[in-house]
Design a protein that fits this description.
Blueprint: H1 20-32, H2 37-40, H3 43-69, H4 72-93, H5 99-117, H6 125-156, H7 164-167
Amino acid sequence: MSQQQLPQQQVGQPTKQQGQSTQQQTGQQYQQQPQSFDQAVPQQVSQAIYQLEQLETNAEWAHGQAMKAGDRFTSGKLADVTQIVHLQKTLLLRESDLAQTVSLCTQQALQQSTQQLHQSQIPGVQQVVQQVQQVSQTITQASSQVGQQRQSQQMGGQGGGQTPSSRSGGQSFY
């Protein structure tokens, strides 16, 4: 078998082969997007994601410490905290419209968990408890900002705010 060499192409130079023009256009779209994470998301959202990342890391570490100590209750609570924080962080990163709704559940679950972990002597747990108290307000602000952005995007993309029934001529499809 002989090896085939792919044609080399200068970036930005048009080609005559089908398929490559699509790749080139996609590449140009990516070049137009912001270059850094901080430019891509609002400051409150960026701050919340950073704090959630720290909390997730510390909760994972404390979880490991609780496992080593054989404290199943504490390790389970810390595993829950880690998962909850990860979900909230993911929704904020994607700027999901569910971020605001889930943030209410996140705060309640974290508050409940920290009350139960308050007396733990496992290394790292008290730091997690303190971080939960600090991050709570930031989650609220960032989630509401994401929610407001989503609403304004949806209102702009719905053609004058029409409801689905008014766009379909008032017919219902049951």
